[in-house]
Amino acid sequence: MYAPARHRADPDPWVERAACRDADPDTFFPPAGGAEASDREAAAKRLCARCPVTRECLREALQHEEGTGIWGGLSVRERREVLRVAGTLEEIADELAAFLANGGRRISAPVRERPAYVWFLRRHGWSPGRIAGALGLTFGQVQQAWRAAEYAFVCTRGPVSRMPRFCLPAPRAAGGGRGTKPCSPEGRSQHLEPAVVDVARAS
């Protein structure tokens, strides 16, 4: 989403390169609920998918906790999930440090904090298999939680250049699989939708 005027004097005026600069702003602020809201959100995300500055746009929205609109390809609900997961990464640090000090054998991870638990233990050198055993999770659940936490960390604290670019969900291929995803042509693109969905599922 095209940023407010107060940000246009930045040393890197990324807003001047935004694909939505000349688009109808209403597209990015769909009404709550209904078919019209879904259609507008889909239209906004299609524009975001071909925008060269979605990473800067998303970081802008996360830093200012924008409460409306589609920014960087994510809706308000999706951004809130990212911020919530990012917030838990620090909140449970002391608890998990004590867990490691006591031998780190078994711990109960609340579902909403699962990404933070997995992220912390992975950062301390634990393998996915060891984490699964300690938290009573499946390997798939560990991988899902890790993706959600790492995505939230990169989007809120890491360099903007490390943030994955927004891509539209890949179309379904014959047989139910996913086909080639229509990503931004700039550099190596990474599909964000699974990470956002993982965040929501881990909540």
Question: What can you tell me about this protein's structure?
Answer:
Helices cover 47% and strands 0% of the residues. The protein is mainly alpha-helical and 203 residues long. The protein has helices at residues 34-49, 54-63, 76-91, 93-101, 114-123, 128-135, 139-156, 193-201. It has eight helices and no strands. The longest helix is centred in the last third of the chain and has 18 residues, at 139-156. Helix 3 (76-91) crosses helix 7 and helix 6 (128-135) crosses helix 7. The relative contact order is 0.12.
List the helices and strands and how they pair.
Layout: H1 34-49, H2 54-63, H3 76-91, H4 93-101, H5 114-123, H6 128-135, H7 139-156, H8 193-201
Helix pairs in contact: 3-5, 3-7, 3-8, 5-7, 6-7, 7-8
Structure at a glance:
The protein is an all-alpha fold and 203 residues long.
User: What's the order of the H and E elements?
Assistant: HHHHHHHH
Distance between the amino and carboxyl termini:
26 Å
How large, in whole angstroms, is the Cα Rg? 18 Å
Could you say which overall geometry the principal axes of the C-alpha atoms support?
elongated
